[in-house]
Amino acid sequence: MAAPRAVTLAAIILLSSTLLVGLAVSHDAGSAPSPAGETEISPGHTLIGVQAVGWFGNNNGYAAVVAPNGSVVWRWSVPNARVFDVEHLENGNVLASVGVVEESAADCPGEYGDGCIHNRVVEIDYDTKEVVWEYDWYDAFPNHHEVHDADRLPNGETAIADMGNDRAFTVNESGEITWQWNASDHIARGTEWFDEHVPEGSEEEFASDGPEADWTHMNDIDRLSDGNFTLSIRNYDVVLEVNRSGDIVETYGSPDDHTVMNEQHNPNLLEARDTMLVADSENDRIVEIDAETEEIVWEYGRVPESSPVEPKPLQWPRDADRLPNGNTLITDSRHFRVLEVTPNGSVAWSFDSRDALGTRAIVYEADRIRLDGEHLPEEPDDVPAGNGLESSRGGPIAGTYATLDSWLGFVFPAWVSPVALVVGLVDAAAAALFVRELR
After folding, report:
1. Within 10 Å of residue 12's Cβ, how many Cβ atoms?
2. 37-416: what fold?
3. How much is the mean pLDDT over the chain?
4. Which residues contact 431 (CB under 8 A, 6 or more apart)?
5. In angstroms, rounded to a whole number, what is the distance separating the alpha carbons of residues 416 and 399?
6. How far is CA 145 from the centre of its chain?
């Protein structure tokens, strides 16, 4: 009887060894493994916007650049601030969306009483760290009134999502508003869009409760190649495409339908606008949907509710960028880290602020950038779409390894390949049994 059992154990060793070879990695200190034979790490540094250090409500955010080995090589901050969107400009400077919390009435306009938020969209000289351009305004109070996103446009203007006032607008270099879109004119109760898209019986949930309420939570604006803008209306679970006349020409998602997206951040239309990549925050996943059918073509992070896996691979992600090599760069906000994952979900690189900095940094935005003179757009639309990537959907084995790799990343240091380590332990155990059977 020993021979058949030995043959079975030999097969286990062969299989696990094959998997181990497939999961062998090359790494730098401070970065996560990249499986051999898989897509390599996309080259460049990583620009991050940190909302706060410690936990929400702290006003100690910053912008930083992280090298491939996990070291911070550039950092910028101002006192009492929360930093959200960051963008590396073609001239080498950094554009940042910053909310400075003013706690003294003396620092706020009279109508705001005891405290306010001073929203600043600033262009920072990379070398000197001086602010070389700024557009700013004040709002009533910090929470849900901070500016979350601003993008520099090809014509030199800047597009801004003003969450506190439920509007999107563009300004020129002189600070003059050149275009404006107000949600109250287009998606409020009584509008054609509201009547068509808000489910019957949910009208009160999506109605505005006044000027200082967190009504739309508009957290993102992107310009498309035809001049239209996409607007992320987080509290409606939708992304709108609007033209320069202000008309809504496309709606992605549906209010209160959380199968597509649930309080999303940083949506991005990819490759000829066929798919949309979204940080599906409240669903704790990254999802890429067919722009026409809204079917899922690629997904990372979701774990079934019945799964015993804790912590989840992702906890409230708020940014996802498809990289030129097909990998996806993700901010995992409540796990205080940034991940780069391959099409089948393997972790190719990571930056965990707890390991690298010894602090919990709530990362909002992350962009892969080049410091060698080559410019990478913040959210390029000519990168591979999920439905064209090999292993885009991933089989059950790929999905299991992706989940295991991400979960075990909380247990082992970043330079250890968690999955390879587990497979190696299985391999060693099987080998020990094999030797025992031969005796």
Report:
1. 17
2. Neuraminidase (2.120.10)
3. 84
4. 13
5. 20
6. 20
